[in-house]
């Protein structure tokens, strides 16, 4: 077993578990060198991917930014399909691979470009802000993208009294509480975050006195209302790094706590969490296979490319 490689994960993966992973991880590192590839991994990837083989990790916003400047011939997106599409939009000259093309997202699947056209007809003149968790076709039908890390800034950057924000109803409602801009929402939900309840949060406070509760803005507003703080996965990670709470609960996907625990040994993580079945489709085995076979390559239909890229670029220009 290459010792330096185990060092990267030794605080989160016991040696007996790593023994089943080491060969694939070592093969991936070698394949990355041969193919001039980088692995961009979302914060919800499992620790052996996040710590073991990824080159860049982050929230959706960071991954979109990094995809624009990645110095490589090949980008492997360890995350879900819309993230790989965004990487391709921002870096069309590079080969973008997703290890499992079925890694979808309940939000991205909740809306089509035709739905966006119907919303525009119903609410004429309102700009359409599309969460980055959408297909390229939906981005192309929208004016600007946002992530949970910049949604309020994006909405306010438009300088209008009312916007359409889709497809996440809860993100839209959570942003609406923080801005004077009126928001017309769609009824999409994240299947991971919609399951958290305020009762669960209250119970945590009873069983773990003093726990600091951070909730992702894809959670229902009633959950965010009883949390101490809300933000994207990167904002949560920064909060724990900077505030160093003695005990924290991250109301989000399960791997999030596993991944940031390594860098925050002074914080105890209470772990009520829900798994994202789409994120969990990505494994060391299929990352290895993706690099061996150069599959599955992500492409964007020509008719969507320019308008979808423009929506992401407009978002990245919002400071
Ligand atoms: P962020 O990492 O941007 O907070 O998004 C969470 C998410 O659910 C991505 O699918
Ligand atoms: Fe989609 Fe929710 Fe999974 Fe993120 S956690 S990929 S929003 S289903």
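^ Assign residues to that structure.
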């Amino acid at each position: 077993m290459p010792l330096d490689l185990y060092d990267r994960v030794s605080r989160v993966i016991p040696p007996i578990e790593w023994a089943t992973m080491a060969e694939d991880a070592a093969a991936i590192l070698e394949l990355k060198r041969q193919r001039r590839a980088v692995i961009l991994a979302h914060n919800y990837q499992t620790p052996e991917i996040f710590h073991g083989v990824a080159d860049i990790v982050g929230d959706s916003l960071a991954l979109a930014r990094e995809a624009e400047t990645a110095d490589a011939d090949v980008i492997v997106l360890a995350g879900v399909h819309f993230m790989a599409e965004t990487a391709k939009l921002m870096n069309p000259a590079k080969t973008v691979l997703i290890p499992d093309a079925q890694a979808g997202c309940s939000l991205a699947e909740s809306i089509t470009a035709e739905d966006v056209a119907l919303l525009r007809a119903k609410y004429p003149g309102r700009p359409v802000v599309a969460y980055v968790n959408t297909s390229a076709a939906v981005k192309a039908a929208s004016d600007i993208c946002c992530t949970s890390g910049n949604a309020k800034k994006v909405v306010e950057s438009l300088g209008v009294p009312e916007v359409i924000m889709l497809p996440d109803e809860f993100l839209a409602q959570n942003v609406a509480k923080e801005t004077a801009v009126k928001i017309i929402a769609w009824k999409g939900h994240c299947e991971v975050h919609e399951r958290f309840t305020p009762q669960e949060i209250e119970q945590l406070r009873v069983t773990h006195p003093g726990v600091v509760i951070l909730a992702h803005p894809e959670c229902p507003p009633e959950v965010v209302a009883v949390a101490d703080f809300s933000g994207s996965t990167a904002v949560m990670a920064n909060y724990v790094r900077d505030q160093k709470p003695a005990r924290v609960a991250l109301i989000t996907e399960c791997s999030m706590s596993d991944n940031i625990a390594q860098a925050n040994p002074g914080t105890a993580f209470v772990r009520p969490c829900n798994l994202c079945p789409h994120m969990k489709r990505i494994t060391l085995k299929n990352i290895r296979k993706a690099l061996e076979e150069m599959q599955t390559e992500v492409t964007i239909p020509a008719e969507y490319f320019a308008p979808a890229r423009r929506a992401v670029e407009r978002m990245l220009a919002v400071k």
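The longest helix spans residues 302-317.
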